[in-house]
Amino acid sequence: MFCLALHRYDENPFDPKSPAYKSLKQVRRMHTSIFKFMNENRHMFGRKSIWVSQHDMALTQWAFVGPLLMFPKECGLHTATRDQLDDINYLWRVLGYLNGIEDRFNICSGTIEETQELFKLIWNRIFKLDIVNNPSKVGIEMTKGIAETVKITRPTFSWSAFSNYWYKLLEMPIEIEVKSFTSNVKGSLLRFTFGTLCKSDKIRHLLSELFRWRRKHALKNRSKIEEQLRQKFPNIVYVPDCPIEADIGYNDFEDLAIGHGGCPVLNLVQNMNLNQRES
Hints:
By secondary structure, the protein is mainly alpha-helical. Helix content is 63%, strand content 0%. Helix 3 packs across helix 5.
């Protein structure tokens, strides 16, 4: 999914021939199919509210770009100007729209300063409270699993070092202990890269090109990497326990009307956007 998202930074999402357009079309088809299936069967769980509402879409939008716009320097964008950050904000406003988020609930609809403040509210009032009060063991194990796959193509990555870095930035009241010497070294390398090396535009560009090369190499050698993972973790088998089995088909996204659940943060977004229009 993140590989699909990366196309949207490089290509024109309105050009039907571009990889960005094709990736958005693919994601929208998958969304509409699974959303429709889940909502038509929500009575099975005694659920009245809609699955995957505008609230959920807005939170997903935050997950893709929130940390970057809240902490640009800590992500390596030391020399980014205010206008350049606003360009990223605008890009995700457009991508949010193309993925089905209504303008009134699009959390990137304000100026970069307004978006950053809104992102902080969303983090503190929703994500942070949920992580602290309702920690998900499945979610943590899933991220650790993703980290293991990342290490195949990026040996310097460490889940504990990465989590420790971000938990401190986000002021989480949870301690992520970095136990091993190797993970501590990787954590120091992470801080040095984002905090020092990326202050140079040339080095940041070089690191970006290295990342692109690694991504292309990983996609080209996907079968080999999957086999490496199977051999490394022969006892790890994913067994779905969801009572619903859905076949993700290909339908038009416009066939599904996505509602929202009256979230106070989304109401704040809506009011902010209405005020902007009036002014």
